[in-house]
Amino acid sequence: MVFRLVLGCGAVGRKVVERFDDRDDTSRDRLLVVTDDTSIVEALRDESIPARDADPTEPSVIENIESPDVIFIASDRTDVNRTALERARSQFPTASIVAYLGGNATESDRTTFDDLADHVVDAESAMVEHVLEGVARPSADAAIGLRKQLSSIDGRLAVVMHDNPDPDAIASAVGLTDIAAEVDVDADACYFGKISHQENRAMVNLLDLNLRNLSPTDSLEEYDAFALVDHSRPGVNDQLPEDLAVDIVIDHHPPRGPVPGEFVDLREHAGATSTVLTDYLERFGLDPSVATATALLYGIRIDTNDFTREVSPADFNAASVLYPYVDTSVLDQIEQPTVEGETLETIARAIKNRVQRDTVAVASVGRISDRDALPQAADQLLSMEGVETTLVFGFRDEMAFLSARSRAADVDLGETLRDAFDRIGSAGGHADMAGAQLEVGILGSTNDENEVESIVSVVEEVITNRFFEAIETQPGTSVGAYTQTSQWLFTIDEGDAEHEESA
Q1: Distance between CA atoms of residues 321 and 278, nearest Å
Q2: pLDDT of 71-107, one tens digit each?
Q3: Is 301 in the same domain as 154?
Q4: Containing structural domain, residue 478
Q5: This prediction's pTM
Q6: Is residue 501 part of a domain?
Q7: Residue 321 belongs to a domain
């Protein structure tokens, strides 16, 4: 039996502990986590992982622990890890110690870690290797090209996010306006639609981000140049004219058509557009403000699901660059906003109305006033036992909004929703997170509530059947039997649903 002791449990430590606990070959081993983060202790205990709420740097704490075979020192903070390492090595001289360096180490810290630990986990050094290999960051030509393009702008720049922007889009727009200011270009971070998800509103309000909410009726004549962030085509998932001349495009999503723009950076290997903007800030030699750094880190964490989804070395590097400037207390407040009663009601309806086939659950929540409750409901369904893929949808005005989630290895939700709904609306997204929107114009043709409910019932059946069929169909195969029988229900909506406000 091997006894493993974890001192401190930050973002890296938590992932390692969870992965270790999932391994089949450790059933007879012992594990103990010591951290002074009460919320992490409670979460680990809920997962049946032994955890103790105590300061891992306190000598009296480790003195009362029997001698471990392996020690993993895993706080996010370099100073905490250094103190824990020094005391652990003194208390347990024969133990094998693995120590995480943290994101803000000095040369003195590095020397101490090298002297006392058997293995040092240093994310920054790993990133440097990727930089040298040309993997984690773009060439210097990209930064030169962006500076040249910004410098050519004579007038005001509109940095436009996709509709109903998520944290990655918001942070990326703010980052680009900061870079524009460096070359004396006035810029506004702009969006159409609403920021209605609780975490996203908290992010904007707590960081006091300066954003402009555009209306489709607003004149764009005051702007002399346009940039798109976190999406790549005007008129697709924004309300700009499709033929608009675009100066700058920065995105991390694969394009689904020709991308216009004088300067285009589509960095598909990056897990978030915020990662790309962080790289540019560093290339421009700019120290981000606390608000910008906090927003960018939150954008990366949301789009990569805390560095577990479609993550790349560049994302870890960006996080290490940003962390010294981040206000972690504000970040905690952003991540723990109050949940509105209506959101809870939507989640309850999704649970009650779900239709499940094998590991796939689909639920209609009926009429909604806040579309951003849908992804939260989809996440809640996904947490239910025996469920690996979810679709939750609801109706507002004459639109049907859909949100899907999956943790199944053999499901690509973006492709699944496109297969099911692209011919009758717009759909897209990631392999494990996607959305769609369909214009159900027929709902506006009657004021008879009974007739409306009857139509909604038919639409619910069509959406449910299309999704189940698309899940069961091989990629590239047509939707099948429901295509012709249900086509009359919908009119095409030209918006692009590749982005949802909630990750």
Answers
A1: 8
A2: 999 898 999 999 999 999 999 988 888 888 887 788 8
A3: yes
A4: 341-489
A5: 0.56
A6: no
A7: yes
